[in-house]
């Protein structure tokens, strides 16, 4: 179905910028649609890429443009260690090469081919594994990796070294990389030397470099969540398409700044009420009963209804004469 809407802005705006603002497509995608004659203003085909739409004008995307945007593929991939996310160096294998029919988990309406231009939305270095999103969708790319994106990503990290509260405080909001202060991070202990990181930015090898600054060495790192999208039970080396509903939810999380990061737990120690004035914890002026010494009973008096112990006099034992 063709997309159509009437512009009601106070000032004229470039068509590509307005389409990007509306979440229809990226500016680059809008320019490509205009170049192919797939955009109309008040029923006339738009031919000028820099055209500014004015208040009251109606923009329409043709059926072909709508199908082109709807057919953009977005998928989630469980990247193994040793696979690179982006452009490979000689001898390296890029993640996009593993997106085939054989590695599909479940069903997909289309299998990526040579005509698809899948790009990784976010870094995940060669030594790490976990959730990686690849997409042709410019709007989704802006939401995930744009300069103003604050969509959170969750990682489970195993480290070597002493994990102290002082180091956790520094990891949360006391470090800078490349001369720039890092955004606050949610860092908690899962168990032992396994930590949970929730970040809202993606610097190059950020978690590994953060840990280096506090004398912790990363020995395993897996990304388990991007916004509302979780790795869940997707096997390593497998991929599945991202549904339209999941795409909308990703955009909603980014736009509204949703977070699943838990607050750092604070241990509350219950306080005992002080005894009333003049009273001692063990009773009114009485000393608490101490533990009996040795094996002696606590009291020699028999308890009520307890039978008294009677001594029995034994007869002399017969002696056998020695032969």
Descriptive report:
The protein is of the alpha+beta class and 323 residues long. Helices cover 19% and strands 22% of the residues. Helix 1 crosses helix 2 (27-35) and helix 4 packs parallel to helix 7 (244-256). The chain folds into two domains: 4-70, Structural Genomics Hypothetical 15.5 Kd Protein In mrcA-pckA Intergenic Region, Chain A (Roll), CATH 3.10.290; 74-256, Pseudouridine synthase (2-Layer Sandwich). The longest helix is centred in the last third of the chain and has 13 residues, at 244-256.
**Overall 3D shape:** globular
Q: What CATH architecture of the largest domain would you give?
A: 2-Layer Sandwich
Number of domains: 2
CATH topology heading of the largest domain: Pseudouridine synthase
Spell out the CATH superfamily of the largest domain. Answer: Pseudouridine synthase
- Work out the helicity level: 10-25%
What's the alpha carbon Rg, rounded to whole Å? 35 Å
Order of helices and strands: EEHHEEEEHEEEHEHEEEEHEEEH
What proportion of the residues form beta strands (DSSP E)? 15-25%
CATH level 1 name of the largest domain: Alpha Beta
Structural class: alpha+beta
Structure summary, number of beta strands: 17
Termini gap: 124 Å
Biggest sheet architecture: 9 strands, mixed
Runs in which pLDDT lies below 50 for 5 or more consecutive residues are: 264-271, 296-300
Number of helices: 7
How confident overall, as mean pLDDT?
A: 83
